[in-house]
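Contributing new records

If you add data, match the layout below exactly. Sequence lines come first and carry their own label; structure lines follow with theirs. Keep one chain per record. Anything else will be rejected by the validation script.
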Amino acid sequence: MLVIDSSIFASVIVKDEFYEKCKEYLSVDRATVDIAFAEAGNVLWKHVRMGRIEKEEVERRTELLRALIRASRVYGSDELLPPSMKLAVNHGITIYDALFLSLALQLDTNLVTTDRKLYERLSPDLRRRVILLK
């Protein structure tokens, strides 16, 4: 099992430059955090606002996003908050990113992301737990 962060779901929904690599990770046994709905949904909204996706497409893509995330084991951010806060404070990463990383550590697996800034902020021992798609 792998932990998939919001960037992977968002990439597939908006079909950005990471689309081909990201969609491969949607066929594996995967887990995610409940905030993936809001974070990936926000990316979809931004693409509509920028005119990259037609408004008529939003409903269909929103339902696809929901289905993709629901096909994962979705964990609640409330349970992950205490260890995530510790990671965020100690490593200078956002609580959002820390939630996904904390889940990967809890499940003793790797986190898959396209977030280079997150990856670069982590210590070498935590970087080994992250699969950065480029």
